[in-house]
């Protein structure tokens, strides 16, 4: 349940920006380009956020420490187990 609320809020925000943003653009020679830029900005920002957020939930590679280093740290910190 803790994952659903941030995903819904951020997705809703970028959906509003992508849907309502183009309607705010004034008429002019570059109206189509500006509308495209607003929609693409919303899509790219949402995609970047969702990829980073989901990657932090379940990282593919965790910290990897060699056994030799762990034993050395144990000796230096004084908690060796024989």
Automatic annotation (TrEMBL):
Q: Which GO terms describe its cellular component?
A: endomembrane system; plasma membrane proton-transporting V-type ATPase complex; proton-transporting V-type ATPase, V0 domain
Task: Say which domain of life the source belongs to.
Answer: Eukaryota
Q: Which InterPro entries match?
A: ATPase_V0-cplx_e1/e2_su (IPR008389), ATPase_V0-cplx_e1/e2_su_met (IPR017385)
Q: Name one GO molecular function term.
A: proton-transporting ATPase activity, rotational mechanism
Location comes to: Endomembrane system; Membrane
Alphabetic keyword roster: Hydrogen ion transport, Ion transport, Membrane, Transmembrane, Transmembrane helix, Transport
A family per Pfam: ATP_synt_H
**Gene Ontology BP, a term:** transmembrane transport
Q: How does the record classify its membrane topology?
A: Multi-pass membrane protein
Answer yes or no on keyword tRNA-binding: no
Any stretches that span the bilayer, and where are they?
Answer: 6-25, 32-54
Q: Does the keyword Transport apply?
A: yes
Q: How does it assemble?
A: V-ATPase is a heteromultimeric enzyme made up of two complexes: the ATP-hydrolytic V1 complex and the proton translocation V0 complex.
- Family in the record: Belongs to the V-ATPase e1/e2 subunit family.
What role is this protein assigned?
Subunit of the V0 complex of vacuolar(H+)-ATPase (V-ATPase), a multisubunit enzyme composed of a peripheral complex (V1) that hydrolyzes ATP and a membrane integral complex (V0) that translocates protons. V-ATPase is responsible for acidifying and maintaining the pH of intracellular compartments and in some cell types, is targeted to the plasma membrane, where it is responsible for acidifying the extracellular environment.
Protein name listed in UniProt: V-type proton ATPase subunit
Q: What species was this sequence derived from?
A: Pristionchus pacificus
Specify the taxonomic lineage: Eukaryota, Metazoa, Ecdysozoa, Nematoda, Chromadorea
The protein's gene is named WBGene00090237
